[in-house]
Design a protein that fits this description.
The structure is a single chain. A hairpin with a 2-residue loop joins strand 4 and strand 5. By secondary structure, the protein is of the alpha+beta class. The protein is globular and about 55 Å long. The chain is built from 12 helices and 7 strands. The strands form 2 sheets. Strands 3, 4, 5, 6 and 7 form a 5-stranded antiparallel beta sheet that branches. Strands 1-2 form a two-stranded antiparallel ribbon. It has a single domain, classed as Muramoyl-pentapeptide Carboxypeptidase, domain 2 (2-Layer Sandwich). The structure holds zinc ion. The site of zinc ion (ZN) has 6 residues, from strand 4. The site of zinc ion has 6 residues, from strand 4.
């Protein structure tokens, strides 16, 4: 996605049927929005004003004391890239995926980068980090990739999905379809409630579906994939064992995607294994994630585990 400014947040999830889930009564009221989250400047990121309160104050001496100039993260190159709204350019300006990550986790990036603005590709959403604002709705498009339900994605994520799907086909892994992409807050309410009905309890539903406002699907940056043969596609649950699923597990990072909920990471993510749920983070960060051998996005950013709400 193209953005202009810098901030982020996130949550995982997945539900069978995605946008096709039947309607149910909505959950309780969403968390109130922060009334101070007004435009701090004329800039915004995908329609969301820059929220400078999310960033450290550069005039605060405590934030700058002891920071060696050579250690400075928010250089003019980085802030210029932020102004372009292109997240990949920001990461490149910071020295690449690994350097960007290192700067964020060390706290050196806190004056220009935050992980809770929904419009930047690095945003983190999990059970402890809702989408901010909770009713955030990005601009999305239909990718060229076949989708049985006509799912949409963030434009950069859509292009990256198309490139990955083409590469998988060229590699002989077979066709891949998009089962579910962007889901609005209201659609996620329906999806989650459908899972509560299917699984029989809140606790069981929480292992497979995000509560509204806590889903990466609301960012337009998550894609649930299925293996297809022409227009005939399997289910999400069959994807991990398919040739397409195996290829994606090995190669998705090359196209800017990570498998967000791997096996045996429920203690960190709060979700069961979902080999079909991919999260777009951009090629630079996905490369750093793969090369660093990370299993969860929480570990990548050195954030606390978020197994529960
Ligand atoms: Zn999903």
């Amino acid at each position: 996605m193209l953005v202009a400014g810098a901030i982020l947040t996130s949550g995982g999830d997945d539900t069978a049927g995605g946008d096709r889930a039947q309607a149910h009564a909505p959950l309780g009221s969403p968390a109130p929005l922060d009334p101070t989250a007004e435009a701090a400047s004329d800039d915004d990121v995908r329609g969301i004003p820059l929220r400078e309160e999310d960033l450290d104050d550069p005039t605060d001496a405590d934030e700058t004391d002891g920071v060696d100039e050579a250690d400075e993260f928010c250089t003019s190159e980085v802030t210029d890239a932020i102004a372009t709204g292109d997240p990949e350019a920001v990461v490149v300006a910071a020295g690449g995926g690994e350097a960007f990550r290192d700067g964020v986790v060390a706290g050196r990036a806190s004056r220009c980068i935050a992980l809770n603005h929904p419009a930047w590709d690095w945003v983190v959403v999990n059970k402890q980090r809702p989408v901010e604002p909770i009713d955030y709705a990005p601009d999305v498009i239909a990718p060229a990739t076949y989708s049985p339900i006509g799912a949409h994605l963030d434009p950069a994520a859509a292009a990256a999905l198309d490139a990955m799907v083409d590469a998988a086909r060229d590699a002989g892994a077979g066709d891949i379809g998009l089962e579910s992409g962007y889901r609005s807050y209201d659609t996620q309410t329906d999806s989650y409630n459908a899972q509560v009905g299917l699984r029989g309890s809140i606790a069981e539903a929480d292992l497979t579906s995000a509560r509204p406002g806590y889903s990466e699907h609301q960012l337009g940056l998550a894609a649930d994939l299925v293996a297809c043969d022409g227009a005939s596609c399997g289910t999400m649950y069959e994807f991990g064992a398919s040739p397409q699923g195996a290829w994606v597990a090995d190669n998705a990072w090359r196209y800017g995607w990570i498998v967000r909920y791997e096996a045996h990471t429920t203690g960190t993510t709060g979700y069961e294994a979902e080999p079909w749920h991919l999260r777009y983070v951009g090629v630079e960060l996905a490369t750093a994630y793969a090369e660093g051998g990370y299993d969860t996005y929480e570990e990548f950013w050195e954030l606390p585990a978020a197994p529960e709400y």
